[in-house]
Amino acid sequence: MINSKQNLITQTIKGLYCEPAKIWIDPNRPVEKAIITHAHADHFTNGCREYICSIETGLLLRKRFGNNINLKTIDYDKKFSINGIKFSLHPSGHILGSSQIKIIAGSETWLITGDLKRQKDKTCKSYEKVKTDFLICESTFGLPIFNWESTDKIIDDITKWVSQSEDSISILFCYSLGKAQRLLSELNSQKLTNIYVHKSINKMNLIYKRLGIEFAEAKIYDTNLEICNLNKSLLLLPPSLNNKNFLRKFKKVRTGFASGWMSIRALKKRSGFDKGFTISDHADWNGLVKTIKESEAKRVFLYHGDGESLANFLRDKEDLNIKQLNEIK
């Protein structure tokens, strides 16, 4: 039987590893077998012999990386075994298809949250509360300064920002997968009529629409479009296009960025964007505290961020056994 003195999950140079099952979680190098929590590129590595993920993540991965990858897709909450270790996937609320990974070995349960969000999002399933003995939880925004305002308020701010632009184009930079679709879903209730999206965003939109998710009507932005006809328009574009060579083609343009990092005033000022909108697909400080407490884990590890403040807070206030992930050996 596996016990707390012999960790079921260890951190390796290739990523999180479950040695009894011989499987990695979101590896950063090619491995034999991998479980992928979601379809963002920083959680996926080409070249693995076999991938396991949720059905929605499988659709997105094939759209992004081609149909030749060897994928096995699993329904949420459906148990499957590898070398006697039991696994199941549960919604993490981060983006479409994103998963937590529940692992049972003997009498112990481990849970890896993957990237998670606790705010409501019509483009993906909400975070599912799962109780566990051992928790590996992301801590991207693990500082008390990170407290998200309501999505409705941010969407109203974006709508006003665009509407007040009489003779210029509003470009909102956002990630092509997850953030862009969430914005388009929320903007569906607004009265913006001239919305354009980059082809990389539209590529992901096709998967969402196939699954019945509704968006505000948007056209594909094409470099051949007459720039003068785009005044009072909102363009959703990937951050990679935020450069002088691209932006100089627009005579009058205002730029914004949609990210949780925009809650840091100094970063917002240094970013060069005209406007920053604080909307994130990760849990904020309160969301992380809530998630960790709800798990009822007797031991917690933090990763994907500087979790020192969060660990100190929960250690002092909640008397939790909580550590940084690099302390897993």
Notes on the structure:
The chain has helices spanning 55-65, 151-163, 179-187, 199-210, 244-247, 265-271, 285-295, 308-317; strands at residues 9-12, 15-18, 23-25, 33-35, 50-54, 71-74, 80-82, 85-91, 99-105, 108-112, 134-138, 169-173, 195-197, 219-220, 234-237, 253-258, 275-277, 299-303, 322-324. It is an alpha/beta fold and 329 residues long. The strands form 3 sheets. Strands 7-8-9-10-11-18-19 form a 7-stranded mixed β-sheet, with helices on one face. The chain has 2 domains: 9-145 and 282-327, 4-Layer Sandwich (Metallo-beta-lactamase, Chain A), CATH 3.60.15; 151-277, Rossmann fold (3-Layer(aba) Sandwich), CATH 3.40.50.10890. It starts with 8 loop residues before the first strand and ends in a 5-residue tail after the last strand. Residues 1-5 have low confidence and may be disordered.
CATH class of the largest domain: Alpha Beta
Major sheet: 7 strands, mixed
Helix and strand pattern: EEEEEHEEEEEEHEHEHEEHEHEHEHE
The CATH homologous superfamily of the largest domain is termed Ribonuclease Z/Hydroxyacylglutathione hydrolase-like
Question: Topology of this structure?
Answer:
Layout: E1 9-12, E2 15-18, E3 23-25, E4 33-35, E5 50-54, H1 55-65, E6 71-74, E7 80-82, E8 85-91, E9 99-105, E10 108-112, E11 134-138, H2 151-163, E12 169-173, H3 179-187, E13 195-197, H4 199-210, E14 219-220, E15 234-237, H5 244-247, E16 253-258, H6 265-271, E17 275-277, H7 285-295, E18 299-303, H8 308-317, E19 322-324
Parallel strand pairs: 3-4, 4-5, 5-6, 10-11, 11-18, 12-15, 12-16, 13-14, 13-15, 16-17, 18-19
Antiparallel strand pairs: 1-2, 2-3, 7-8, 8-9, 9-10
